[in-house]
Amino acid sequence: HAVWKYLDCGIEEAGFARLKCCDCGRERLLSFSCKQRGLCPSCDAKRAAAFAAFLQDELLEKVGHSMWTFTVPKMLRPYFLHHRELLADMARNAYETIQELMAEAVGDPRARPGVVAVPQTFGGAVHPHPHCHGLASRGVWTEKGQWTPVPYIDTTIAEKLFRHKVIHLLKNNGLLSDERIEILNRFRRSGFSVDGSVTVWPQDNQGLLRVASYLLRCPVSLSRIHWTPGSKTLFYESNGSNEDPLYSHPDGETLDVFEFVARVITQVPEPSRHNIHRFGFYSSKARACRAKKILALSAFKNEASSPKDNESNISPRKRA
User: Fold this and answer.
1) What is the rounded CA–CA span in Å between residue 106 and residue 278?
2) Which residues of the chain have pLDDT under 70?
């Protein structure tokens, strides 16, 4: 269903709206878009722009932020690909890793950062690569709303903590046995990775737009596809990223057409599945609590500034 809607995206024969200027009378046709997630680069670009505006205008506080990237080893990736509901749990594990380390840094276990986490299932070559990106504040808020910056977090410790949480998650869901855990422990390198080097400063609107576009990027880029009509193979140009050395190629990769289509289709999320998760100070519950406090404070100020109904405000006729 998503593929057929994408094939009709932007085609006037599939539906359009007629726009008319009230001043000059000029008309134009606006083709309907498919609004499919993870399949249409045009619609995903529009969604990313709206997401960046929401982050900038309504959600993010005027503090520094960092983009964290959490990856899992190749052995564990099939669990998240065949059980997509675990991607939300991976996002929560990423938030808990950031929260616990920042709370330990400030000495307040109840302190919370603001985190927007987006799990992804693909790599630069549209290969299966489940991982999680998180836009996190460079500090925490206390229960009283006081801001405390945290300039540095050791990503090596974050990697170990995230590894422990993911293994515990898979074991509790009956997917990871003790034997496979023992095999993972024998590896010289765990395969887990945590990076938080990308920074977005408070007034860097363009940087925020780039990060938001990356968080909601489409798995496939049409400009990187080189295909001759009728050919059974295509060349997918590399994006110059080394996010997964197992699948990275210096210039690109030659793929069978049907294999490439299969790679793209497997990245389409379920219609009812949310892929944007907000935690801590940026969660919906925390924002609702702050909004109630602001309304209560505003009502109190209005009541205090209004004239009181005392005897000096009563007319002489009412006194009689």
Assistant:
1) 22
2) 240-250, 306-320
**What is the structure's pLDDT at 120?**
93
Q: How far apart are CA 244 and CA 129, in angstroms?
A: 8
Query: How many residues comprise the chain?
Result: 320
What's the rounded Cα separation, in Å, for the pair 24 and 301? 49
Q: What is the pTM of this model?
A: 0.84
CB 91 within 8 A of CB 257: no
The tokens for 255 are 């793929």
**CB under 8 Å, gap of 24 or more: what pairs does 247-250 form?**
247/123, 247/124, 247/125, 247/127, 247/129, 248/124, 248/125, 249/125
Q: What is the pLDDT of residues 288-312, one digit of tens each?
A: 888 887 787 777 777 777 665 544 4
Conformation bin of residue 240: beta by default, left when phi > 0, alpha when psi is -120 to 50:
left
